[in-house]
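Minutes, project check-in

Agenda point 3 was the complex the collaborators sent over. CS summarized: two entities, 588 residues total, and the question is how they sit relative to each other. Sequences were read into the notes so everyone works from the same version.
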Amino acid sequence: MAAILEVTGLHKHFGGIHVTQDVNFSMEEGEQSAIIGPNGAGKSTFMNLLTGYYRCDAGKVVFEGQDITNRPPHWVARRGISRAFQISSIFSKMTVAENVRSAVHAQMRHSFSIFGVASRIGVEETGRVLSLCGLEGKRDLVAGELAQGDKKRLELAIALAGKPRLLFLDEPTAGMSIEEARSTMELVDRLNRELQLTVLFTEHDMGIVFNHARKLTLMHRGEIVVQGTPEEVRANEIAQKVYLGEHHP
Amino acid sequence: MKSAAPQRAANAPGRRFAVVLLALFLLVPLLPGEFWTVVGTEILILGLLAMSFNLLYGYMGQISFGHAAFFGLGAYATAMLFTALKSPDGSIGVPEFLLSLLVGPPVAAVGALIVGFFCVRLTGIYFAMLSLAFGELLFYIVFSWYSFTKGDDGIQGLLPPHYFQDPGNYYYLTLAIVVVALLVMWRITESPFGYIMRTLRDNQRRAAFLGINVRLHMLANFVIAGAFAGLAGALWGPFSRSVSPGLLGWQESGIAVFMTLIGGAGVFIGPIVGSVIYTMLQAVVKMYTVYWPLTIGTIILLIVLFVPGGVLGLVEKQIKARQGRLSDGGGARAGSDEE
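CS then shared the predicted structure for the full assembly.
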């Protein structure tokens, strides 16, 4: 299998604080892995660097053989990298269906179509994504008025509507009930298995991490401490000390 | 199946209202005297300006205090071509007249492209301030470039062809152009581009991560809004027989903001309803008192405080609340009240 993402020597500092230090990281196509680490370890920053939201101070990010370092977010998104945010980031005054439909339009390169009729374009794909995420019953509700768990599901739906090949999920189950979290992660597994979608997620719930990731990366103070299979990371002494100890007695 | 139905139901009252409004507009010249026909023309032209402003405010979520600059650019472009085309005795043929109207929108669009290039780099109050600064800059250029624009004398003698000198005929010409313009604007707001604008209003960062080039889309919308403002400006000169630098100024921009707030930014035809209220009120109040600014100031104050969605926003809320009651107790209905 070929590397879909290749990160070398990534550096980022805010003032005197190094939030990302010499990070080398790679993902293979079809992989599903997780980044773990204590709060402030640099997980979200790392995703922001990969998707062009922050500029890197040094290093290189290559996606599918193409250098995407310091490209703007919309450029990166168009190459096939999508992301869902930790705090759900949706279009709150639009309906659920309109949220997904506009994401579909963006993916279909229809965003500049000024005389097309929005409600007739990408209808099928919108319906597919909505039912995939279990939102078809809520399609006409205003997004800002959804319950927390549904907002997170819509967040995921918007990210999927872009038909990504690489998906970043920042704490996809935060704020969800146990049942919602389970069905969300089952969906992620299914997307990974059936559509060969490469997935990288961060998560604080170690039960979810060990059940759904086939590879783990532990970050601490902006650096990668340990990388490997869940078993290897679990057995690692540094990992025990830095992070797992407090979660897995 | 379920998808389109509720939306169509929600749109139906809006469509009925638009048809009734159009019917009323068609009847205005039948009123005795010319007064209301002239007021009606003003309502339509300034309403078009306010509608174009709302493409930025209601749909893209950015407020511009310099939008009248493009209204003025359109007015001056038309006035200059008009002056160049009219014969020495001051009369102008119908084709030349229509040609001079056509030049307004593209000139305004070019102006909007240049101003927008800078404005779309910012959002919120910074966008508003920069648009104001550019508006005043353009006002000042027109005001002081005497050899080209005739400065604060303005351009006079824009007497339309004989047929359109009749207020009723000019009114119907204006009505036809404004209706076509609004239909085009409606198509744009209901297009994929129109919905991308709403995503930019709600959450620019999210839109960027969907692959939307935020600035480029904002710029496109800025140019479209500028072109429609230019069309309104083109109609203004021959209507008032003259143009002056004040058309580009912040007070004129403020009128578009007022109208939009009064009518409701969240409803497509809100700004033109705002124009009906604003312009008629102005016409009536000025008959009795010189305290028009005080009057409109008080009204805006009350609207902002008590009816933040504007008049149509209030109406829409009532309709939705009633629909919510009618469609029995079929589960919790979000979106029926509360902004």
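Noted in discussion: Chain A touches chain B through 48 residues (CB under 8 Å).
Follow-up: revisit at the next meeting once the mutant set is ready.
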